[in-house]
Amino acid sequence: MNPPGVICIYGAGQIGCYVGARLAAAGAQVTLVGRERVLDGVRGHGLGYSDHLGQRGHMPASSLSLGLGPGAAVGAGLVLVCVKSGDTAEVGGLLGERLTPGTVVLSLQNGLRNTEVLSGQLPGCTVLAGMVPFNVVTPAPGRYHQATQGQLELQRHAALDRWLPLLRRAGLGPALHDDMPAVQWGKLLLNLNNPINALSGLPIRAMLHDRTFRRCMAQAQREALSLMRAAGIRPARMIPLSPGWVPAMLGLPDALFVRLAQRMLAVDPSARSSMADDLARGRTSEVDHINGEIVALAARLGRDAPVNARLVALMRDAERGGRTIWSGQDLLAQLSAA
């Protein structure tokens, strides 16, 4: 089957390169637009992928188109936007000058507002919401590993139909949804863990084996769930457990939690949050677009969100050169005091 057109991955970082590698291996014409450092790794090593199930593949650099700027997106039929949420407005403005009417633009970003921002700047395009529930790590230059289970979660739309066979051949799912805001809120609820993981200095699995860090996660989630209920928001279930029950599970003794968690979610020992990677590389994180959304929701309701506000403050302090590694006990004390 012939591919339906060129796919541009705009923001080819860990998620973008992994998705691009799988699409290219399935026969897609893929253009990667990203940082010079990332593209140099692809030029020198090709683009390889692997996952927690043992699947793997490798594409030579010659089979891909690599670009540094928005001009590389010209002519693409599908654009996957994978940049950080703070860069969405700038990217939307750049793409708005180059994409032809009818182009399908799919946001594969954290946060809640990216499709709204992109739609305002790409009025002739079909802008759809997507969500990536899995974690990707980079064990070597040019190689991208899916370290947790999951498939792409995408907004159902007729404009996406011609791309679905290719996405399925690539092993990316996807699961289609009519209510993407519920899915995004569900993912946001789980992502409240990201600053906790970043400040722990540990891989996700090792952090989850420490009950004090899990109690930090439970505090952030309970606060968020209370505010969501007040606002009439019903987050979708992203793991085999209702969102309202997750904080209670996080508080279980270590041995019991580990047994239950292993049945629900496969996590590679190397998995870390994207916020942990940002902190390690000296980049500004997306904490304002994750925990900050809970703070903003509280403000709209005339309430406070002290736990999530404290996590935002601790991450911003760490990014400015403050304390970057916290024990579970110290972090829990900070959040409990808040």
Your description of this structure?
This protein is an alpha/beta fold. The protein has two domains: 173 residues, 3-Layer(aba) Sandwich (Rossmann fold); 155 residues, N-(1-d-carboxylethyl)-l-norvaline Dehydrogenase, domain 2 (Orthogonal Bundle), CATH 1.10.1040.10. Helices cover 43% and strands 15% of the residues. It is built from 15 helices and twelve strands. The strands form two sheets. It has an eight-stranded mixed beta sheet with strand order 5-2-1-6-7-8-11-12, sandwiched between helices. It has a four-stranded mixed beta sheet with strand order 4-3-10-9. Strand 11, helix 5 and strand 12 form a beta-alpha-beta unit. Helix 7 crosses helix 14, helix 9 packs parallel to helix 13 and helix 9 runs parallel beside helix 15. The mean pLDDT is 94.
Detail the topology: elements first, then pairings.
Blueprint: E1 6-10, H1 14-25, E2 29-33, H2 36-45, E3 47-51, E4 56-59, E5 65-67, E6 78-81, H3 88-96, E7 104-107, H4 114-121, E8 126-131, E9 136-140, E10 143-146, E11 153-155, H5 164-169, E12 175-177, H6 180-191, H7 194-200, H8 204-208, H9 211-231, H10 246-250, H11 254-264, H12 274-280, H13 291-300, H14 306-319, H15 328-337
Parallel strand pairs: 1-2, 1-6, 2-5, 3-10, 6-7, 7-8, 11-12
Antiparallel strand pairs: 3-4, 8-11, 9-10
Helix pairs in contact: 3-4, 7-12, 7-14, 9-13, 9-15, 13-14
